[in-house]
């Protein structure tokens, strides 16, 4: 019986020293849950508001997620709705985060922080958000090809972003994906099956 | 003989909102019944129907919400949000395996891909011999499987149910000379929408939502949704009911607590949640096997890209299965490509232009789910207080299981290349793809077992089983051959937890047959369990 509102002991944060293997692992765990839970907001499909208000993501988190969305989903250059100004990808993630259990939400924040601050020599120890487009993409690719915990974290964050973009039905025509068809095809509902014969 | 009328559409379900509006119930109330069934999926629905038909007063408690098929949207995302367990966030402790499970009235039968397969005579006879389950021998268990097949209208896919995705698998198998066959599914007059994973809005999938639950209700069974059983109530060592809480499925607010007084408790909450309820209830367990022996049938999704557009997501979701290795190595491969969101379960989906191009090629893809048999060495555990604790699912591949997963995925890739694929995306956390069959082995070799196989293959499980295994020996098994716990009279298990060892066949057919078997055991010995 999970009580999402209960206060959690911070024990799970112990050992989450930045960059430690365990830290990355736990972050990946959170992110995995977040990925799946990421589907929680798939029903959103709201119009992108002119002024975005975030209820769960912090400004720093918004900055990281927005940057990752820009880097990962250059949709407009493929004739698809923008991932930041048309499809409210980041706001969808925010809606998802609101519904996450506290423990998972905390870990999500940690995962985003670790991702942004993961120092890599080849990137001159810069934060992800301060990298140029080209280097930001290279950073994402480097994480994906990194150690097992790095690729776990990266895969999960990618999935988080991608799910919250491709869930929007405005993206589907670009894939030639038909979406719901039962009503369009006029498929008749059969209702309940009759009782088996004795 | 009484006239029994099945509702034309939907199931009469008491939901949290109904309880909240019923002032006579209050914040805490008690119901009395002959049999309380925990869970309304494949097993729970079957037990409810069989027991209600036998004249018992039956109460079904389902922790998930009631989502009638008339409201299904064919949006996979909507569906995941509303009726997938933990919003598809049910994962192992290292979060690299997703346990996909329905959390709604009808359980996983509502969101399943409709694939049905018998366990096989050899498996059943093995259970009989190894675990003292003579009633489950192939000869004795056959009538149960046949009954379920009739009830669920299980049939072998016909030609129109084999879509372009499946045809690529067939072509590959023909060239490799691998055995394949049309899959068996529990669908009546399939409308070929391809939206099985989001529920069937036209009621063609023979889920419990349109079969055993309305049938049970027709015989008088009462069904509560949004009602999570915390623990089994005991009196003098015998199960006497359950303690549950009702929560609003949208806000999570607790609406009421419910106590049920019952002559019998039947747990059918699935192989993950049934042992957790038993652990919270602190039942006696001489075997030490409660929650253990978790087998998960891990599967990976392998994508092949073809030169011509396939629109492989159109038509029946699962068309064919490759059975060449099912009985020798435990690998079974099913064709299937679902909604765009499902591509994200495949593995790394790249970033930037590479991601956009990966997604834009959706219409060129064929997909398969490559299953491999595991050793059944996982376990589930409840940590903490019954009300505020947490579940944990422990399963990571051993080296042998990792190699099985790798072999199964490699076979799927070879089949695609033989079928004409120009590229195959491997189901890994690493970004791996092979552009020809000649690259395949080298690419696969890049997937290293590492530490406990963590973040290697991107795996899922739809068929966990084995966590309350059935057997004659109380020191080796949790549940007796009748379905009753060895050490707790009046407490039965009827779901996939019972399956005594890892099997490779999809489990729904077996589970519903087991549930009917357990029901028959109870009904045949009713005088021992019920007064009057």
UniProtKB/TrEMBL annotation, chain A:
InterPro entries: TAT_signal. This is Transcriptional initiation protein Tat. It comes from Alcanivorax profundi. The lineage of its organism: Bacteria, Pseudomonadati, Pseudomonadota, Gammaproteobacteria, Oceanospirillales.
TrEMBL record, chain B:
InterPro entries: FAD/NAD-bd_sf, GMC_OxRdtase_N, GMC_OxRtase_C. Residues 36-298 form the Glucose-methanol-choline oxidoreductase N-terminal domain. Keywords: FAD, Flavoprotein, Oxidoreductase. It holds the Pfam family GMC_oxred_C. GO terms for molecular function: flavin adenine dinucleotide binding; oxidoreductase activity, acting on CH-OH group of donors. Residues 377-515 form the Glucose-methanol-choline oxidoreductase C-terminal domain. Belongs to the GMC oxidoreductase family. This is GMC family oxidoreductase. It comes from Alcanivorax profundi.
